[in-house]
Specification:
By secondary structure, the protein is α+β, with helices and mostly antiparallel strands. It is built from 4 helices and 7 strands. The chain has a 7-stranded antiparallel beta sheet with strand order 1-7-6-5-4-3-2, sandwiched between helices.
């Protein structure tokens, strides 16, 4: 059912994405992204970072026209926490598990104290009315492997900001519970759609990663 929701939602999201992108600083593409270089995508990431400050977790101000919804989802994986953390937190492992994700471009990675930082862009190709809508999610990921959690802040069209904290809890029998705390921020007219379908997408990805980790594929 979650997979059906994700597939049905994709054309609706693509339509909203294209309409909103027409007047936005980082425009949508309606053909496959075959010519844009990694350096150009990195520059777009920097423009979005400078424009939207998407790591800022301050709630939207009253009357701003923006709203926020927070959801939490969990899955238990039959594998120890340390390897689950490594496989789950590597966004390249999400390719093929998210049906539209085609590649992940890492622009910069560095360590400070016990935290690893990654500036990256995830590129999805969404079919819509005979064309391909290229959706870019610009993100910063902060990994805390010793404490078994990571955080991701991101921005994507149509001006959707997400804040994620993914926690890995050791369970008896060598199992791991992965809990995703998801905060979605968008224009008030879109927030219910964004939160509902964003959460469903993460649930589908959780199930796919669980299967891949437990089967030994990852």
């Amino acid at each position: 059912m979650r997979k059906i929701l994700r597939v049905v939602a994709a054309p609706m999201f693509a339509a909203a994405f294209v309409l909103a992108a027409l007047s936005a600083p980082a425009n949508a593409d309606t053909t496959a992204d075959t010519t844009e270089s990694d350096a150009e995508i990195a520059q777009e990431w920097q423009t979005v970072w400078d424009t939207y400050h998407f790591t800022d977790t301050t709630p939207p101000a009253p009357g701003s026209g923006r709203s926020r919804v927070t959801n939490s989802i969990s899955v238990d994986i039959n594998a120890p926490a340390a390897p689950v953390f490594g496989k789950y937190s590597d966004f390249n492992n999400h390719i093929g598990k998210n049906p539209f994700l085609k590649r992940v471009v890492t622009h910069k990675q560095w360590c400070a104290d016990d935290t690893t930082y990654r500036n990256l862009t995830a590129i999805e190709e969404i079919p819509y009315e005979g064309a391909i809508v290229v959706s870019k999610t610009h993100a910063q990921q902060r990994l805390h492997p010793e404490k078994l959690y990571y955080e991701t802040d991101s921005w994507s069209q149509p001006n959707v900001v997400t804040h994620q904290k993914i926690v890995f809890t050791r369970l008896p029998g060598g199992k791991t519970r992965v809990t995703e705390n998801l905060t979605f921020e968008a224009d008030s007219s879109l927030i219910d759609f964004v939160a509902t379908n964003g959460t469903a997408s993460h649930q589908q990805l959780q199930a796919a990663l669980k299967q891949a980790i437990e089967s030994g594929e990852l």
